[in-house]
Amino acid sequence: MKRQKSYEIINLFDLLSDEIMFTILDLLNQNPLDKKAFSLVCKSFYNIESKHRRTLKPLRQEHLLRTLNRYPNVAHIDLTLCPRVNDSSLEIVAKTYKKTLRSIDLSRSRFFSGSGLLSLAENCKNLVEIDLSNSKELQDSALANIAEAKNLEKLWLVRCKKITDMGVGCIAVGCKKLRLLSLKWCLGVGDLGVELIAFKCKEIRYLDLSCLPITNECLPSILKLQYLEDLILEGCFCIDDDNLADIGHRCKSLKLLDMSNCHNISHVGLSSLIGAAESLQQLTLGYGSPVTVSLVDSLKKLSVLQSIRLDGAVVTCDVLKAIGSFPMSLRELSLSKCSGITDDGLSFLIKKHEDLRKLHITCCRKITYIAIAHITSSCANLVSLRMESCTMVPREAYVLIGERCRFLEELDVTDNEIDDEGLKSIARCSNLSILKLGICLNITDAGLAHVGMCCPKLKELDLYRSAGITDIGILAIARGCPDLEMINTSYCYDITDRSLHSLSKCLRLNTFESRGCPLITSLGLAAIAVGCKQLIKLDVKKCLSIDDAGMIPLAQFSQNLKQITLSYSSVTDMGLLSLASISCLQNLTVLHLKGLTPSGLAAALLACVGLTKVKLHASFKPLLPQLIFEHLEARGCVFEWRDKVFQPELDPKCWKLQVEDIVH
């Protein structure tokens, strides 16, 4: 008997260098599931993927050590999904990534102190970015420890309400390489702390001082910063006109200035401050003092100005005409909720700014067909047009948008009179990626079908309360828009499981909102769960035919689900408990579930170990042991209690009339 020859099996991938394999992995960045599949092929692929990863976002603190050991070359770590990160965790991170760590995000973590931050600062010499936003218990002593990170370039301290000038002073002295600093809502920081930053941190490019109790006293120091490009002073109510004329000439490097909600600065002070900022490209003055012609005239000197945002400001026709007389052409203009916007002023302005790329005119309720005609004829290169609730614009005007603005990528016509003819025309904008059609009561499947056939790049579609849409329209979208990532069909009452089955073919779908769709059942939801494995957010509130049978497929296939709303559905204890197997689940809303008992709710809350936010009906609060709340809060979970009475749904037209009564 002849002996069979044995052949050694050679893995051809072993012949490729790590650099080539890393290049292959770079091509899989778009879908994280692809990288996971790659790592599961074999041991060598597993090891290559581990060495290749530079960014890490762990799901659970309890598995942190094992996760860190698997990935040795991480440079950026995001711990926002781990609310219970403590000092021991940070010490492990610091020791594991002593040489590689460059940035860390702790903006959703609440259990660490200055000790853990000191470990990071002392061990990770290459650390250049730290986000400590929302650390409401953080005090000055912790900032003194952060100051040991001598190479720090970017620091976010948003809503760190207990820090004071003393702590900020420590940062100023220790972190002289800072280029970005956000102190938004740090209510204990005043002029002294800001002046120390300006005096010591000469490399600052971005400074956010929103809602700080600072005065004019610190402005001269800020405006002396040689490289300062972005200055955010939103909501600084203590800044006024005094002495602004004397210091305005110093802000030569500014490219972005936000002084929205600064009610005590008039056009006089603004003109002085802004007029000499010769490099200014973007200006935001919303919700403040009335915009005057003299203020606008002072902007004419700014030859590189590209963007003006006046949202919520009082704007007259003369002001719009003054903007229209600029010698330079704007690229972005935002007039959302501005009173005083009329056809005459807006039409004059638009004629002079033909290079406009983004226009925001939401709630400009006085404009009509005339303004839209001028916008579409003058600004053919628009990529973004947001005009929610421009209710005086007739349906004929929307045809012009599709005929003339073929480069549109974003269009928001929520709560308007657009009809199928308008949609048919807008479908010519083949680059559309965001289309918002909420509360558009004149559109039907016939119009939406054109969008499905002609807009293959569509990623986001909002059909909220557009009751004329049925399965036929959704089927057209699902067939023609394979890259769809978000869809809202809430209160489209004729939507059934057929729509969900068709949408299950959109493999990149991550957000599905269908509240108030009574014909949707658990069978349709199961199709979404099986087909759309990237699903992150799900809202099936008031879908009475969604029950436990829909939760089981979610638990099995939707392992990326982070947020779910099940209020007013037919889910019971068993269905809620099955969701515990979704390790990513963080936000849970369950109001008015008739089949939910206190014991079942308690079991589900304890089993869903990743929860960070739970919204419950107030009636459950006295029915559950206080120890459960204490235990869950210690794990990092926050409870929101609601005492809402069940309200029957209104007909869409009645609902719209009710909203209009409130607005007017």
From TrEMBL:
Name the residues that span the membrane: none
Q: Name the GO terms of the biological process aspect.
A: SCF-dependent proteasomal ubiquitin-dependent protein catabolic process
Report domain F-box/LRR-repeat protein 15-like leucin rich repeat positions.
84-284, 354-476
Q: Name one GO cellular component term.
A: SCF ubiquitin ligase complex
Q: Which InterPro entries match?
A: F-box-like_dom_sf, FBXL15_LRR, Leu-rich_rpt, Leu-rich_rpt_Cys-con_subtyp, LRR_dom_sf
Record Pfam families: DUF7885, LRR_6
Per the record, the coiled-coil ranges are none
- Spell out the protein name for this chain: Putative F-box protein atfbl3
Q: Which organism is it from?
A: Tripterygium wilfordii (Thunder God vine)
